[in-house]
Amino acid sequence: MFFVLMGVWMILNNSLAIEIWLTGGVVSLFLAILLCSNCSVFQGVNLTPKAMLYTIMYILVFLLELVKSNLHIAKLVLTPSLPINPGVIRAKTILKSRMARLILANSITLTPGTFTIDFIDDTLYIHCVDLEGEDLEAYANSIIRKFEKYLEVIYD
Question: Is residue 146 within 8 Å of residue 61, measured between CB atoms?
Fold first, then answer.
């Protein structure tokens, strides 16, 4: 929590002056101690070199999926017949961490053409603008597995 608060402080101040750093450090430390005695948001985060590498890889995979889904949706929109096949699919996740599940659900929602409707226990319900293929379970797995394999290392 300290690093998040300090990062926000430095971004908002847009200065590298020592007095800004010291003030931000004191305020961030005070707020982190005061507010995060029961803070569970960052529990389960692995701070190993492998987890940090997987975090970078996750961001790259997410950006790649973001570009691919934007192009796919643009193609659908620009096609005069608008060949969409909307539907809701169910996908089970192997992630145990609440934060990892939240990031998975948000990653799916942030990529155009998919929207996480609900998350019950270990099951996500995802609305898709264009369902591809006949095997919906395989399609659901193809959506979540590309994110899960990285989040599992980062959080579980």
Answer: yes
